[in-house]
Automatic annotation (TrEMBL):
Annotated coiled-coil segments of the chain: none
GO molecular-function terms, A-Z: alkanesulfonate monooxygenase activity
Listed NCBIfam families: F420_Rv1855c (TIGR03560)
Segment forming the signal sequence: none
Keyword set includes Lyase: no
A GO BP entry: alkanesulfonate catabolic process
One of the Pfam families matching this protein, by short name: Bac_luciferase
UniProt keyword annotations, A-Z: Flavoprotein, FMN, Monooxygenase, Oxidoreductase
Listed name of the protein: Monooxygenase
Keyword Flavoprotein: yes
Span of domain Luciferase-like: 24-230
Length: 287
């Protein structure tokens, strides 16, 4: 099983250090400490799950570029991009650029999005639920076409591209992760288009994999081709301490998950991250 660090909160208050300095230290420890991935949330305001909307929040792709310059091995992605926030042709170009400049370490993490308040606040595109999922499917088709050598036009219900020219191309193409556990739409799209699928690592995680398997059967897709990832807090000070965390990770492993991404509470103190590097990653790597 692989572990990834997820960043969803930048409300850091270390003495005499800027957000950039703390983020740089986190990136180096993550990269050198054996984490496989480093992901960032794609919000422009903080969500109620982590604080108040006025808390610090960094734009995702600018942050990934910063992280790419400070790391050498970890894969980089959003978990996950809201499909309506940026035109899909531009997203494909951004991810290709990140992949080329990072030496092949970028993934496209994408989903339907949900935070209407922040979108309305900054004038970003949003739409009712059904239309966001229609746009998500078209965006996946567009990105796959732009990751290939095809330059033919794309004409969908929501997006029209006169040409999908994307030069230079990244070879092999960036892998695509679809995030979300919606059983009728999200997992259907993951089965049809994704290289990886991310769901929450709670009690329903095993059921979500079963639904994904059923969607793969309907789509004629090999279930084993899709990487199964889960998001779970990586808190060395949580219930049961390190042994408790390892037990929760083992449950996901036994359900069939290939990798787990998670945020680390109090990460600006660095110590919790160092605990994971010293006591959790070596154990998980041996599974």
């Amino acid at each position: 099983m692989k572990l990834g660090l997820h960043l969803d909160d930048y409300s850091w208050r270390p003495e005499n250090e800027s957000i950039a300095q703390v983020l740089s230290r986190i990136a180096v420890i993550t990269d050198e400490g054996g984490f496989a991935r480093l992901s960032v949330t794609d919000h422009v305001w903080q969500t109620s799950a982590h604080g108040v909307e006025s808390d610090p929040m960094l734009e995702a792709y600018t942050t990934l570029a910063f992280l790419a310059a400070r790391t050498a091995t970890v894969e980089l992605l959003t978990l996950v991009s809201a499909v309506t926030y940026r035109p899909p042709g531009l997203v494909a170009k951004m991810v290709t650029t990140l992949d080329i400049l990072s030496g092949g370490r970028a993934m496209l993490g994408i989903g339907a999005g949900w935070n209407e308040e922040e979108a309305t606040g900054l004038g970003l595109s949003f739409a009712p639920n059904r239309f966001r999922f229609e746009r998500l499917e078209e965006a996946l088709q567009i990105c796959l076409q732009m990751f290939s050598e095809s330059t033919r036009p794309y004409r969908g219900k929501h997006y029209t591209l006169a040409s999908t020219l994307n030069s230079p191309l990244s070879t092999p193409r960036p892998r695509i992760l679809v995030g979300g556990g919606g059983e009728r739409r999200t997992l259907r799209l993951a089965a049809r288009y994704a290289d990886a699928c991310n769901v929450y690592g709670g009690p329903s995680a095993g059921h979500k994999l079963q639904v994904l398997r059923e969607q793969c059967q309907r789509a004629g897709r090999d279930f084993d081709e899709i990487e199964k990832t889960a998001i779970l807090p990586l808190d060395p000070g949580g219930p049961g301490g390190i042994p408790g965390l390892l037990q929760r990770l083992a449950v996901l492993r036994d359900l069939g998950f290939d990798s787990v991404l998670g945020a680390v509470p109090g990460i600006d103190a660095i110590t919790p991250l160092e605990s994971l590097v010293a006591k959790v990653i070596p154990e998980v790597a041996s599974w």
